[in-house]
Amino acid sequence: MSNYSIPSINDILSSPKLKQLANRFNPIAVFNTAKSVLDEVATEAKNAASERRFPDVSELSERIASRLKYSPFSKTIPPEINATGVLFLDPAPCQLPVQAIDRLIKSFGGEYDKMSPNKPSGDSENSNPPKRKTAEEMICELTGAEDTAIVGNHAAALILTASAYFSDGGDVCSSHTDLYETLTGYRVQEIFERAGVLLVNPVGTAAHVTPDDYLQMIREESMFLYASNGADAFFYEPRNRPEISQLADIAEKHKLPLVFDAEWGAFHSVKEYGLDNIPTYRDLIQQGVSLLIFSCGGLNACDFATVATENAENPIANQFRRHSLAVIAGGKKWVNRIRKSPLFSAFIPAAHEVAALEAILQLFESRNTAENTIPLWQLLSTEQDNLRLRADRMSAQLAAVSGVADAVAVSCHACLTPLRPGYVIPSWQVLITLESQTAPEILLALANYSPGIATSLVPEHLNQIAINLRTVFAKYDMLVIEALTACLTRAA
């Protein structure tokens, strides 16, 4: 046997190359592949006829990267550079910040010690609880909620809430548009029905609902009032509906909880980015929401679409597609009732997910830190003047590329997701007119270029493509120019 020692799993996962891969591939796949390669190296060394040098961290990283390249996960990797102007480009998850990847790595390597999720420090078996704040504590500080519970996904939060309040049957009082279809494709009404809700009373109409509509529909069997902003972005003009504080007064009068489902919300205001209709969680709590439900994905930048794995021992947790963890926050008595649900233990999140969430919540404690360290918020907070200058510079350079007839900087908009067209953000784009190649040909060539680049077609113009800079980090500008130059040269 050689005297050289095999690097530890954490040494490998901490290498720059694998940290990058952990953000592009399923992080669990990276961990499992790294462990498999290390086991192979150990076996090879043990069976070697003579002493041999163990591969170093760099060599092992290359071996793991090569293995991942041909794994099933590599077939679903989205383009690394998103120039479409769609911030949430399915199936691409939001990039996790470096701090979250570090915590994932430590958790996978068994070095992450934390209290059980949703377990108060006073109930912990650890006589010396960790000094750092738990995810639950940070969420309470960020939202102003008295208590909070973290569960496996958004559907789980709805199921738990409904089951906790409908053990004896009953109905929920809500408006038509509050019972929306989620971005993941299931209907809120179906979730309630699965949880045992006997009747859903939609009040008012899609365009108009008043406080009196709610008062007239509340019955003795009503268990809570439910409101959401899941359909808000379908309406370009504000709907005529009661303020949340008005619904809170109605709920309090009838001794019912007001449950608000914030499909889109944020820890800090996003109005200055142009997203006027998205509330902060603190504001919702202050207006009297009893239980606030929100996903840790979306603007909260902790998307686990590539982290989640199916749990054979917990089929109920696999029932709905898992994009990210979810939070149920509000008054202590309301959240405690959720925890007492017999289903609660089925939806407790995995330790590595909570570890990454804690790392991101620490970054959200300061708005300035969030804008400087969380990739999604770096894109959101980029000033329009910055985007314009980049667009001017890129258009001048691209206009000189062979195969480009014209390239101009144009003001435009970006969006959160095409499924919610009302949530748009000001942006700038480079509009490129091709000399002979058609736009679909070049889009395909850019997508297959390494790294993959996703751009957009210009409606009704088969020889134009658009590079929307709201979704492109400045460090990639030159790479986009080089990629388009190479693709046009190959096509010529």
Radius of gyration: 25 Å
User: How is the main sheet built?
Assistant: 7 strands, mixed
Distance between the termini: 56 Å
CATH topology of the largest domain: Aspartate Aminotransferase, domain 2
Structural class: alpha/beta
Low-confidence stretches: 121-127, 306-322
Integer average pLDDT: 83
Count of runs of 4 or more consecutive helical residues:
18
Oligomer: single chain
CATH superfamily of the largest domain: Type I PLP-dependent aspartate aminotransferase-like (Major domain)
**CATH architecture descriptor of the largest domain:** 3-Layer(aba) Sandwich
CATH class of the largest domain: Alpha Beta
Shape estimate: globular
Describe this entry's structure for a reader:
The protein is α/β, with parallel strands linked by helices and 492 residues long. The protein folds into three domains: 74 residues, no CATH class; 272 residues, Aspartate Aminotransferase, domain 2 (3-Layer(aba) Sandwich), CATH 3.40.640.10; 111 residues, Aspartate Aminotransferase, domain 1. Helix content is 38%, strand content 15%. The chain has 18 helices and 13 strands.
Provide tags for this entry.
492 residues, alpha/beta, Aspartate Aminotransferase, domain 2, Aspartate Aminotransferase, domain 1, 3 domains, seven-stranded mixed sheet
Quick summary:
By secondary structure, the chain is of the alpha/beta class. It has helices spanning 9-13, 16-24, 27-47, 57-69, 98-108, 135-143, 154-165, 188-194, 211-217, 244-253, 281-286, 332-339, 351-364, 367-373, 375-381, 384-399, 439-448, 477-491, and strands at 81-82, 147-151, 171-175, 199-203, 222-228, 258-262, 291-295, 326-330, 404-415, 424-434, 453-454, 456-458, 461-468.
